Amino acid sequence: MRIAILGATSQIARDLIVSCSAETDKHLHLFARRTDELAKWLGNAGLSGRCPIDEFSAFAKQEFDVIINFVGVGNPAQAAAMGNAIFDITLHFDEMVLDYLHTHSACRYLFLSSGAAYGSNFNEPATKDTPAVVAINKLTPQDWYGVAKLHAECRHRAHPELSIIDIRVFNYFSRSQDISARFLIMDILRAIRDKTVLKISPDFIVRDYLHPSDFYSLVNVLLSAPVANAVVDCYSRAPIEKQQLLVAMQEKFDLRYEIAGASVGINATGRKPHYYSLNTRAADFGYQPSLTSLEGVLLESYGILNPHQS
């Protein structure tokens, strides 16, 4: 299986590349803007020479069975810094793939979407009946990322003749992620590493952290299933509430924290108390997650905090 990985410098793409490296039937071709950085990472990961690397200009000249598009932003700070450019970037690379599919109709396309495509109203978790809600008369920069993903999903559903599956990622956590990123879990890990007291907001939130092994499992079942034009939400075996996470990190890693008087952290895509999904459409393709959010977080946190023992 010849697989093109677009945006191969992203953390979630790198994790998938490592997972695929043990399989002889998957032949990856990596595309990125920063090819030197990608080549260096392959060397550090012990994968030098295992995958061809090219700039995006070489993409249309190749033959692929599958295209996986990871191009986008990987953390809230990046989303905030990118601003309205997210529209042009998402559209550019998505149209590049759609043009390819129109002349290579047998090729499958997996597009990394986001739970943010539902909008910013997560007072309840998403379900199969949850509509996307966009405050069309009161749009703010916090809406742009989700609207860009929603726009892409609409384009994909408008081409039912093409094999396209959008994968809505809500929360993904891996030991390979940048510990300086402004996610809640990374704020927790920095406080543990630096032996500082974490100032945490009083907001009630529930999150569902997807482990790399379950993401890999999801990709595999989607590629093994009959061709389809569809969308699936990512989910673990069980989400976790913030207070439960804090207590578990305190017990396992001696986290020290205190509740701050006001919200802290970067709010790039809006406040989402229940940012996870109960839409289990992925199970129709054969997906069965193996880890709960807490199990995945503890496993990967140990790998980050004890890099020479994992």
Describe this structure as you would to a colleague.
The chain has 310 residues and is α/β, with parallel strands linked by helices. It has a domain at 72-177 and 208-237 and 275-291: Rossmann fold. It is 35% helix and 16% strand. It has nine helices and 14 strands. It has helices at residues 11-20, 35-44, 76-82, 85-103, 144-157, 184-194, 212-224, 242-253, 293-305, and strands spanning 2-6, 27-31, 53-54, 66-69, 108-114, 164-169, 171-172, 197-200, 206-207, 209-210, 230-233, 240-241, 256-259, 274-275. Strands 3-2-1-4-5-6-11 form a seven-stranded parallel sheet, with helices on both faces.
Write the layout of secondary structure elements.
Elements: E1 2-6, H1 11-20, E2 27-31, H2 35-44, E3 53-54, E4 66-69, H3 76-82, H4 85-103, E5 108-114, H5 144-157, E6 164-169, E7 171-172, H6 184-194, E8 197-200, E9 206-207, E10 209-210, H7 212-224, E11 230-233, E12 240-241, H8 242-253, E13 256-259, E14 274-275, H9 293-305
Parallel strand pairs: 1-2, 1-4, 2-3, 4-5, 5-6, 6-11, 7-10, 8-13, 9-14
Antiparallel strand pairs: 9-12
